[in-house]
Amino acid sequence: MKRNGQIKVALVTGASSGIGQALAENLAKQGVTVYAAARRLENTRHPDGGNLHTLRLDVNDQLSCEQVAQQIIAEEGRLDLLVQSAGFGIAGAVEDTSIDQARGQMETNFFGSIRLLPAVLEQMRNQKFGLIVNIGSVAGQIPIPFQAYYSASKAAVSALTLALANEIKPFGVRCMVVQPGDTRTGFTTSREVTDRSLKSVYADRCGRSIERMARDEQNGMTTEVAARVIASRIFRRRPPLLLNLGLVYKAFSLAVRLLPLRLVRFVVGLMYAA
Ligand code: NDP
C-alpha cells in the first residue's frame, strides 16, 4: 500500500512512556518531525537519525495545551498529525470512588483529549489536511468492573472521536480512535486505586480484579508492536475510524457486537468481578 507522504509534522502526547513513547520514536524513525509531549521529559529517548523534539505538556492545563500547539505551528508552519496518548487509570468500586477521583479521571482522559483540539483543528482545516488519533481502550467498548470510571472515560473518548469524524471530514481532516487491549507499559504502576476500595465490602473482589488487570497488562502486547500497527494505519491514505489492537481484542470487539449483552457481562464478570 502506498504510504501517505503528507504526514510531515506530528504532536504526540503521553510520549514519556508506553504507547505514546514508542509511537513517537517509530514516527521519528520514519522521517516525521515529531514533537513528543508529556509532563516528564527526562524519559524521552531520541532515536538515531530521528527528528524528535520534546515539549512539556500537562493535558489538564488549558494554557499548556494552547502554547504547545502554537509553538509547533509557529516553528513548522504546519501540523499534520495529533496523537493523544496521555492518560492513566483509576481502579476501585463505583461505590468507593469519590466524585473528585472520578472527576480527576475524566479530567485527564476525556477533557485532556479535547483541550488541544480547537487550535489543532483550526490549523488542519486551514491546510486542508490532518489526522487526529485518540488512544481509547477496549474498556471503552467492553466496560470492566472495578475500572468503571476508566471505562467510562474511554467510552467518552471513542464517542467523541466518532462524532468528530463526520464534522471534520468536509475539511480534509480525519480522525481515528485506537482501542488497545492489554499492553505492557507504565500504565500498571501509574494506576490509582481509590481510597476506600481495599477496605470496603468490595475489597477482596476488587483486589483480585486489580491483580488480574496488572498481570494481563504486564503479559500484554509490547509497545513496539502496538506502535508499528498504529503507525501503519496512520500512513494509510484512508486510515480506519476505529482500530482494535491485537487479534484477540478484535475478536472480543466483534463478539460483543454479536452476542447477547447478558452473556458478555457474565463472561466479563467471571474474569474481573469474581
Ligand atoms: P503509560 O503510563 O506508560 O503512559 C502514559 C503517558 O501519559 C505518560 O507519558 C504520561 O506522561 C502521560 N500523561 C499522564 N497524565 C498526563 C497529563 N496530565 N498531561 C500530559 N501527559 C500525561 O501508559 P500507556 O502507554 O499504556 O497509556 C497510553 C494510553 O493508552 C492511555 O490513554 C491508556 O489509557 C491507554 N491504554 C493503555 C492500555 C494498557 O494496557 N497499557 C490498554 C488500553 C488503553 P507524564 O506522566 O510524563 O506526563
Percentage of residues in strands: 5-15%
pLDDT < 50 stretches = none
The rounded distance between the terminal residues' Cα atoms is 46 Å
Number of helices: 11
Run of helices and strands: EHEEHEEHHEHHEHEHHEHH
Structural class: alpha/beta
Fraction of helical residues: 40-55%
- Biggest sheet descriptor: 7 strands, parallel
Tally of strands: 9
Question: Which hetero ligands occur in this complex?
Answer: NADPH dihydro-nicotinamide-adenine-dinucleotide phosphate
Alpha carbon gyration radius: 18 Å
Globally, the shape reads: globular
Mean pLDDT, as a whole number?
A: 94
Structure characterization notes:
This protein has 274 residues and is α/β, with parallel strands linked by helices. It is 47% helix and 15% strand. The strands form two sheets. The protein has a seven-stranded parallel β-sheet with strand order 3-2-1-4-6-7-9, with helices on both faces. A two-stranded parallel ribbon has the order 5-8. Helix 1 (18-29) links the parallel strand 1 and strand 2 (33-38). Helix 1 (18-29) crosses helix 9 (223-234) and helix 3 packs parallel to helix 6 (148-168). It is globular, with a radius of gyration of 18 Å. The termini are far apart. The structure holds NADPH dihydro-nicotinamide-adenine-dinucleotide phosphate (NDP). NADPH dihydro-nicotinamide-adenine-dinucleotide phosphate binds next to helix 1 and helix 7.
Task: Give me a quick take on this structure.
This protein is an alpha/beta fold. The protein has helices at 18-29, 62-76, 99-109, 117-127, 138-141, 148-168, 187-190, 203-218, 223-234, 247-258, 261-272, and strands spanning 9-13, 33-38, 51-56, 81-84, 90-91, 130-135, 173-179, 192-193, 242-244.
